[in-house]
Amino acid sequence: ETTMAFKELDTQSWQVLDRAHYLHPSTDHASLRQTGARVAAHAEGIYVWDTDGERLIDGLSGLGNVNIGYGRKELVDAAAAQMLELSYCQSFFKTTHRAAISLAEKLTSMLPGHLNHVFFQSSGSEANETGTRLARRYWDLLGKPEKRIFIARELAYHGSSHMAASLSGIWPMHKAGGDLPLSNVTHIKTAYQYRNGFGMDADAFGVLAASWLEDKILEIGADNIAAFVAEPAQSAGGAICPPMTYWPEIQRICKKYDILLIVDEVVMGFGRTGEWFGCYKYGIEPDIMQVGKAITSGYLPLSGTIISDRVADVLIDQGGAWDHGYTYSGHPACCAVALENIRILDEEGIVENAGKELAPYFQAKLDAFADHPLIGDIRYVGLMGGLEIVKDKASREAYAYEAHIGDFCSAEALKRGLALRANGDTMSLMPPLITTKAQMDEIFDITREALDATAKHYGVTA
Ligand code: PLP
């Protein structure tokens, strides 16, 4: 039963209207026209029900954001109370409000001591726009406008606006519109050991992968580089998790060449790695950090760009007005929901439990796929995991793109009531942080069934 004033239609009619009028994000609409979309109706905990009453386990936490699970009334109440009290407040000029101030203070208290200033916007893409504009502004104010190039990584995902898509290293995104990447973005190989350092000692590979940043800096000259931009671990690229030696080396190289370090925690922030932030998991001290997604567990849109004293001091003391801002920067209801979300994640020990109890269980379940005939590589950090499908385990040969084996496998999982995602041919899982061990068992039982059905369809035997 719905409390909203929707038309009373059956599922098929919704699908017809959906195809006619609603352009979905990142979707093959030709294929959608043939299959029709699943129409979600309501959700609770880790489950989503569609308009036919069928239940789906959300093994992806929405898009890596619904960390607290669906249907927490406290978050709804926080939004409603804030909307009744102060539904909107712009803070472009000299107005502010308590929800944004409280959230900015809360975030900075949770982060390393040098990160003391927060800029808000609605999405991760916008957070990356802010971070990169800010880096350029910083160097301009210091009289070094030629420091304008951003180094990012292959298989990175930073969003869909022009700069965020440019920073992304998933190449089809560059063709999706505009002459991308923008001319001041370049990419290096990433810490993807299965493809870029197979068979090496993991620690040695971490150091090697970091050295690719130094190679690039030497190639284009540190005087031309604004920043290195990276996710602590890459999610949309296919659960690419660096060895522990990688980030300390990256940090050292950025310091050595005086290059800002911008860390995109849009997915990793708020517990995905089993720590509150990826920077704690990997020991990173960013100059600028982006957060979003799970900051509200997906109940409302909000992102933050968190700025170190080093950068903020220049911006504030030397900058004058900075003409950058969004209508919904620091939206009161979004900030109130974020505060309540963080309170619950903390007071109920959800992040702590995810790291200490759930992550080892999840990771052992992933490791159990080592003997599966389709799985060539298994990667994880915290509650993000990936199972990479290959055609030949010995040679690591991938299936041809046209085989669409990852998509086939995710469709098989969906048929059996589990949402997971094919990032290329890596089957990615990011369950909510409130998933129980029994629910985890169910997730992996379905994952195995889906992989077995895929193996059968593609004629693969053990
Ligand atoms: N950064 C990372 C690491 C992401 O994974 C994403 C989205 O998946 C983004 C940024 C973009 O965030 P949004 O979709 O909210 O613009």
TrEMBL record:
SUPFAM superfamilies: PLP-dependent transferases (SSF53383). Keywords: Aminotransferase, Pyridoxal phosphate, Transferase. Its EC number is 2.6.1.-. It comes from the Bacteria. Its cofactor is pyridoxal 5'-phosphate. It holds the Pfam family Aminotran_3. One of its GO terms (molecular function) is transaminase activity. It is an enzyme of class 2 (transferase). InterPro entries: Aminotrans_3, Aminotrans_3_PPA_site, PyrdxlP-dep_Trfase, PyrdxlP-dep_Trfase_major, PyrdxlP-dep_Trfase_small. Belongs to the class-III pyridoxal-phosphate-dependent aminotransferase family. This is Putrescine aminotransferase. It comes from Kaistia hirudinis.
